[in-house]
């Protein structure tokens, strides 16, 4: 692969990566990986793929830290129950090995303490609930007997009371009716049931008392009540005993309340002390877990007592890694120095694009579709401009763009404050894409000026290029005459005319085709940049040249005819302008025949272009497979003729590299070499692939060009919807006068503004954004983007803390 002439550049294409091998003394393995995690530049490879995860060297440490992590999550939940606010931990918090041992022991102690306090609180609460229920039952029972003793309306004969027994308790209120129906049917009406609502906090319960004859029936009542989750309580028959029982319950509740307050106070005090240190503990445990999980990727050399690891590092940052290793070795004063070796490898490195808070959102748009192959052109860079611009063509309105710009500007201005807030999924998406929204709003205002459209109305910023007659009769159709050219954008004279829609339709439709041609052409030239960078001559002659001739011979010609047709004053020359759609169709169906010529010699030009396009199809289909077949035969001939001869000496280094690959001796043992070998393709596979590519390319040139007509369709729909909304709200309000007019204007203005934001900005904006996304993913990126890379995911404490 050729060397990049732009050292350190990682925006236009991914950064150059190197596979490095680390030799670290086992006694400083933890400290070294800890420092590399703070540095965040090494993506470690797993050198123990064939080793079971439970048999790795540091699995016990990982398990121990998992337990501590579980304990910290328990403390966090308990703090949330107490309403305690937890601050963010210091990301630079660190601890020594002895501190970790102390934290493990402290976690066990605190877990036991908090669990005991919480269990004690639950037991006290349960006892308190039972006592409250018993008190309610005693109170309601006393009321019932007092009513009967005083000769209430539902008196029971004293003779029958001698043989009556009763069951009392508390039951969920929604099951009172169920209990009554079941007892009535089972006992055949041989009962008396009294209920009352449970006062206090538990308002969803009711007290009940059931009277009936016989111990067997009472036992049956108790069993039925228990099946309905009722709590039964023993109540004395004697009045004095019930009064004593009530006094005992009140005293017990008083004691329970004191115990409950003390328990909660102790628990709250313990959790407050934990909450002060919990955030930093979480940071420390997350770091330690990630360190030992990373160390499990290393191999351990028992003879030399060193840890051996491999990882990908950006080429320009290798010196930083070396400096870090040296500083850790010097501080620890160990006999075995840490060593970093850069390995020669045939493996495909991960893709790494350096981004900042502005470019990261645009890069995510590309990465959502696919990760760029290593060192190929990054679509994320041009997307910064083309994505909001394609959106703006469909969303062009000064007013709507300004609303979107203001909303995005607020997100950018308060980004530090919003970044610390807890955000829901939708708001977080808007926040992460705030710079995209900002450019979308700015570009929409620009295209709004081009369309001269602000909330469906025009502005006269410069002198119009058309003049109306000075006088006319009512009902007469008048026609403006051109006096010049409007300085910038669409002339405001067109707004409100009968042929406005016809003119803007034609203008925006042709503009969308031109934008599509420019967008696809520059995207196709990015493939040339890739071919030059990778030195692929066969792709240049077999894909780029025929593809360019085919695309430009048909659709480039269409774009030129659109521009040429705009430059001709057809009224001045007294000629009817030809239909470009008919011209393009007849170019293939009737070559050499032009019913209405656009320019002299048009027939000959179109025949030549059609012939070139037809030649490009077999060119695109055959050149690359035949070229590769020739190279394959040449290599096979050299391999056979060089067997045992002097050519072996020339091929020896290559043959040795093919045999050994990047396996660093006994360090990695070649455990995972086979899983990354490049797949070899036969000639038949190459032909099939090229046939598919040829068919797709030719068809996509047609379908993708037509796909850009969505720019015209959505722009037209957006403008018409804006006009309809204005006419049905504000325009209608202007028909009223006086106080009614003021009131209607205020009401309809509020309706117009809300509908504008909800429908035209939010809904239409989302639709235009998705269409712009599709134009980039499919129509543009398909011209040059392979997207077969793997993301660069270095071991970084910053990422670990953000994830957890």
TrEMBL record:
Assigned keywords, A-Z: Coiled coil, Hydrogen ion transport, Ion transport, Membrane, Transmembrane, Transmembrane helix, Transport
Protein name: V-type proton ATPase subunit a
Organism: Yarrowia lipolytica (strain CLIB 122 / E 150) (Yeast)
Coiled-coil portions: 110-137
Record's function text: Essential component of the vacuolar proton pump (V-ATPase), a multimeric enzyme that catalyzes the translocation of protons across the membranes. Required for assembly and activity of the V-ATPase.
Taxonomic lineage from the root: Eukaryota, Fungi, Dikarya, Ascomycota, Saccharomycotina
Recorded family membership: Belongs to the V-ATPase 116 kDa subunit family.
Any GO BP: vacuolar acidification
Transmembrane regions: 389-414, 435-452, 511-533, 540-560, 603-623, 709-726, 732-762
CC annotations in GO: fungal-type vacuole membrane; vacuolar proton-transporting V-type ATPase complex; vacuolar proton-transporting V-type ATPase, V0 domain
Gene Ontology molecular function terms on file: ATPase binding; proton-transporting ATPase activity, rotational mechanism
Region Disordered: start-end pairs: 658-677
Topological category with respect to the lipid bilayer: Multi-pass membrane protein
UniProt-listed InterPro entries: V-ATPase_116kDa_su, V-type_ATPase_116kDa_su_euka
Compartments, record wording: Membrane
